[in-house]
Amino acid sequence: MEKIEAKDVNFYYGDFHALKGITMEIPEHKVVAFIGPSGCGKSTFLRLFNRMNDLIPGARLEGSILIDGQDIYGSGVQVDELRKNVGMVFQRPNPFPKSIFDNVAYGLRVNGIKDKEFISHRVEESLKGAALWNEVKDKLNASAYALSGGQQQRLCIARAMAVSPSVLLMDEPASALDPISTAKVEELICELRNEVTIVIVTHNMQQASRVSDKTAFFYMGEMVEYDDTKVIFTNPHKEATQNYITGRFG
Amino acid sequence: MDSKNTSNTVPPSGPVPGSPDSMSGRSGGSTPVFPEDYSVRKRRSQKAAFAVFRILSLFIVLILFAILGFIIYKGAGVISWDFLTKAPSDGMTSGGIFPAIVGTLLLMLGSAIVAFPVGIMSGVYMNEYASRGWVVKFIRLMTNNLSGVPSIVFGLFGMALFVKYLGFGDSILAGSLTLGLLSLPLVIRTTEEALKDIPAGIREGSLALGATKLQTIWKVVLPMAMPRITTGLILSLGRVSGETAPILFTCAAYFFPQLPTSIFDQCMALPYHLYVISTSGTDIEAQQPIAYGTALVLIVIVLIINLLAGLMRRHFEKRLKIK
Amino acid sequence: MKRFLEKAVKWLLTASGFVTSAVILLIIGFLFTEGAGLFREKVIEEGYVLALNRENPVRKMDAAQIKAVFDEDITNWSELGGPDLPIETFRLEDADDYFSEEELGSQYENAGSLIASLVASRPGMVAFVPETLIPEGADLNFIEDSSISPAEVFAGSEWYPTATPAPLFGMWPLLAGTLWVSFFAILFALPFGISIAVYMAEVASERVRNFLKPVIELLNGIPSVVYGFFGLIVIVPLLQQVFGLPVGESGLAGSLVLAIMALPTIVTVAEDAMRNCPRSLREASLALGATKWQTISRVVIPSSMSGIASGVVLGIGRAVGETMAVLMVTGNAAVVPTSILEPLRTIPATIAAELGEAPAGGAHYQSLFLLGVILFFITFFINLCVEFISSRNRAKNS
């Protein structure tokens, strides 16, 4: 079953044509990686899935994006409902200046859950899911800023997972982390794939090959090639992909 | 789609997967059930909140226009060539406000002579010379404190130091010095901020060509920062033009129909004139129009100054964009 | 030569760098020396004595009691710890009631001895007369004079700086008036200030913002005397009608005018603080399904709280120190306010209104400088609070 379908997506920042005619399908419970050089449009494309680009003045979309068969840019769609279902983890860890507990509970609270017992239960569950529970269980009321960068990023993953989304978007989630923290985050991605469909943007090709089932290569606003990760990294059909994979540019 | 998520959750990958509390956490494997109407409710509360903000913001605009409109409406009829160029007469119940206009302009000029050089130099020192952090911090603290000192305290101080101790008497000199000190913090802050925005590379480029530090500041840095500094200077003049409390006891004359001939003369000033006429007038009927006219002239000065500063800022920003 | 010039300029710049610090020190120095002089002044007007009958055992009266006696609020010596005897007061201008012009003499040369014998003959009399007038060795008692005490000044609740024989310098009504007006001003300004700041920083489109920004700047630029004038002509009569007051000049009028004047400060600083809230935090919140308003109220406002607080504190500072507008609309009654609808008087307004009439160097003059010292330290303290808040904020952000 296809979780996300993009149909002939064109995207403009003012006059700049950032995405050119992209059509792709992302299957449920798979990890799909977007790779490509800086400015190729992969992050822009990712941010279309939870309508994060709505915030940018002068941006314009053509084509349609469907999640679970529903056009997320359709007229009846509420953005907050969509984002509840499509979680996101950002490039840099961005915990709120609140306690660890309040960070994870935030998504539940802003979506109307008031049952304290359930919230604390769910916070614990999410922190365990993000492999952070044992490190923070004694200091849930400490500020999230007291955590290391890697811990903060796992906290952000826990925060995103707390509202139980069915899609998780990750925008270069490990680019600001050290190698050990990166490994932990990657491990987490592999575990989370059972729960959610993950779309991850990454600069790091090893990372893409380690964590993803399918990989899409973007170049100059176009999707050059999209296939099983194994195929992309061992036997790409397009020369541009081959060149990028082998480090001839980018 | 949610039901699927719960059935096959992953065990936590921490070092103690079998510990009792991790087991208990897992056993309750729960999916949040979001209240259905909440989404509608929170959107509604957003709408309400934003509507309140919009109304309150509109209100402040209305207040401004009420003040401006009221004074322009009432004062416009009073303004005439005679009003602007004649001295008050008949015990300040008729005539014009020429001496007050001249006095205010003189005080603006005087305070500029006092504050601009010192303020700019002080800003240059803080941004270009003072190297140790605590020196800058201390000066900035003092400057901020000075900018928070109430204007009436400046008036007291000016009276004690310039009028009495230094013996200048009630004079334009004493008033200018007091007003100059009052506007000093604003001048320093704008200078400092303007200099801070000049990229370090430009200084390095000049120094690399063998220019001394002073030459670099004088020929490269200051000219580049000048538009922004000037904007700040103009705004500080605007503030000076409307201040009353500092000149109450240092300079302002209740009635001084001839023009001042030396800096040791007293002078009339628009804000003080407005205060006197509107609070301790002898003939309210006759004097009220003069008060409206004086208020209008004051407002026009402020408007011109703000407009000028705004235009300069816009002009400067445009130039930056081209770069 | 070039070297020397560089050195000289550096020296000059350094010197001007410390000008503001020097000014602060000078302000403190001058205000203090003048203000502290008040406590060296005597309670009874200089050059005068309060003469009593020999048999009257009362020796001490404080300034408030002296005033009450001469205002005939205290009419019996028993209230002052003396015998049960009605008090008769005597001032120099009462001399005509007791003596004929011939008796006094053409140059009033006999006045001293006549008054002395009058007081000596009336056990309940207290006379306020110049010290030089009383003949030496007169058979009289005198009230012992003492210096004005800080307790009377700071805790005293009566401000009658021109009363004779003993002026009262109780500053409490003025301090209370200042705080009272500022408190209400901030109370009014706060909801507006925060709302406008949120609206400008988060909600308004670029176009609306570009319109509001100059509006706020202009409000900031309007001279305080114009606000006072507007308040006097428009707000004061309006309040008088709406609340049916005997006089419209009241604490409320002052608070309203001050609220408008404090708004620009609050808005500018708070808006700045909210704009500085990192974009990544907003995105994180929105990505979790929060609405924009939830994001503002739960993330943006809490994380820019210190900036907002600085704005509010600065607004308070502006309200506390504002002079002209308050002077023009509050009615200037030096009583401890019990209601915001009554006239009251603030410290800056008192200084502005009275310094012109106070003889230089006298107790009244010095008391006004002391008020200046108090005002200076209130605002100094407020500024230190702002510094503290924002430096903590800087530390948190870095």
Q: Count of DSSP E strands of chain A? A: 10
Structural class of chain C: mainly alpha
The span between the termini of chain A is 34 Å
Oligomeric state, counting identical vs distinct chains: heterotrimer
The overall strand count of chain C is 6
- How are strands sequenced across the largest beta sheet of chain C? 2-3-1-4
Strand arrangement, major sheet of chain A: 6-7-8-3-9-10
- Total helix count of chain A? 10
End-to-end span of chain C in angstroms? 44 Å
Could you tell me the strand content of chain C as a percent range?
A: 5-15%
* Biggest β-sheet strands, sense, barrel of chain C: 4 strands, mixed
- The low-confidence parts of chain A are none
H-E string of chain A: EEEHEEHEHHHHEHEHEEHH
Relative strand content of chain A: 25-35%
Q: Which shape of chain C, going by the Cα principal axes?
A: elongated
Task: Describe what this molecule looks like in 3D.
The complex is a heterotrimer of chains A (250), B (323) and C (398). Chain A is of the alpha/beta class and 250 residues long. Chain A has helices spanning 42-48, 79-85, 100-110, 116-129, 133-136, 149-162, 179-192, 205-211, 229-234, 239-245; strands spanning 2-13, 16-27, 31-35, 59-67, 70-71, 86-89, 167-171, 197-201, 214-219, 222-228. The mean pLDDT of chain A is 91. By secondary structure, chain B is an all-alpha fold. Chain B has two domains: 34-75; 81-322, MetI-like fold (Orthogonal Bundle), CATH 1.10.3720. Chain B has helices at 2-7, 20-27, 38-76, 81-85, 98-129, 133-148, 151-165, 172-196, 200-208, 213-242, 245-248, 270-279, 284-322; strands spanning 88-89, 94-95. A two-stranded antiparallel sheet of chain B has the order 1-2. The longest helix of chain B has 39 residues, at 38-76. Chain B is globular, with a radius of gyration of 30 Å. Chain C has helices spanning 2-17, 19-36, 63-70, 95-98, 101-104, 111-121, 150-155, 172-203, 206-221, 224-243, 251-275, 279-287, 292-303, 305-321, 324-329, 347-354, 363-397; strands spanning 48-53, 88-91, 125-130, 140-142, 159-160, 168-169. Chain C has a four-stranded mixed β-sheet with strand order 2-3-1-4, with helices on one face. A two-stranded antiparallel ribbon of chain C has the order 5-6. The model of chain C has no long low-confidence stretch (mean pLDDT 89). Chains in contact: A-B, A-C, B-C. The interface between A and C is medium-sized, with 27 and 19 residues.
